[in-house]
Amino acid sequence: MVVDGYPEKMGGDGFTPGTQRFAWGLFIISLLLLGPHILKAFKDPEPEPPRVPFTGQAITFDVGKSVCGPEFQAKNSDLVAALHQKHWKHPNPTKDLNCARSVKITELESSKEKSVIAKVYTKCIHGCKIPDIALSDAAFKKLSKDGGTSLKVTWDFTD
After folding, report:
1. Residues 132, 84 contacting (CB under 8 angstroms)
2. Which residue ranges form the domains of the chain, and what is each CATH number?
3. 8, 61, 78, 127 - which has most CB atoms within 10 Å?
4. Which residues 6+ apart lie within 8 Å of 10 measured at CB?
5. Which domain of life is it from (predicted)?
């Protein structure tokens, strides 16, 4: 390129000084615009609000096949639980984060609250509302003193 009758000098990288100034200008403008967003990525995450446990009914279910896949085997004598379908987020339940999560269930009907920890095993299809949880016979018996079929409980994930 010729400027004022003289050829414009090229930098060692093959760019003219005008092109270099333009590129640096774009770089600085980009930093100014994107800087706050870049800094957010490195900022400590906001603390999560405290979780409130679910309060509902515990019922029993007959332990069958797990929706979590064949590697999750259980019997009615194991401490396992089933969650309402709305707690399952992944379209393929075997990949859902709730598979094999631990839940702590505490009964609320007696003056001496009893708790049990169970592993999430499957979906509760029949008889569950959103805050309810279904338990294997073994888990339910740890909480129930009279062997009923339903029990008022609170429950939450332990992790």
Report:
1. yes
2. 2-42 (no CATH), 54-157 (2.40.40.10)
3. 61
4. 16
5. Eukaryota
